[in-house]
Amino acid sequence: MVPDLVIISKQAFAKLTPEQQKALVEAGHEAEAKQREYWNAFVGKTVEELKTHNVKFNEVDVAPFVQAVQPVWEEYKAKFGTELLDLIIAANK
């Protein structure tokens, strides 16, 4: 995924009215969904184009990798708490 960010300082955000804050947050979520949609379509089209040029793609089973990093996740949970890791996991869905 290519990250496209909407960034605003806490001070600038605090100067907005509650309605403006809500609108900005909602627009950010809508933009995120659209960006993912466009990106996924682009990737799909690109993969199909590359296959016409005999490019081969390997499908990788990520389960062994997920299992291999579990001890690291547990270490981070103990050190930093679960909130940050939960946010990271949620962002990848």
TrEMBL record:
<protein>
    <recommendedName>
        <fullName>Solute-binding protein</fullName>
    </recommendedName>
</protein>
<keyword id="KW-0732">Signal</keyword>
<dbReference type="Pfam" id="PF03480">
    <property type="entry name" value="DctP"/>
</dbReference>
<dbReference type="GO" id="GO:0030246">
    <property type="term" value="F:carbohydrate binding"/>
</dbReference>
<dbReference type="InterPro" id="IPR038404">
    <property type="entry name" value="TRAP_DctP_sf"/>
</dbReference>
<dbReference type="GO" id="GO:0055085">
    <property type="term" value="P:transmembrane transport"/>
</dbReference>
<dbReference type="InterPro" id="IPR018389">
    <property type="entry name" value="DctP_fam"/>
</dbReference>
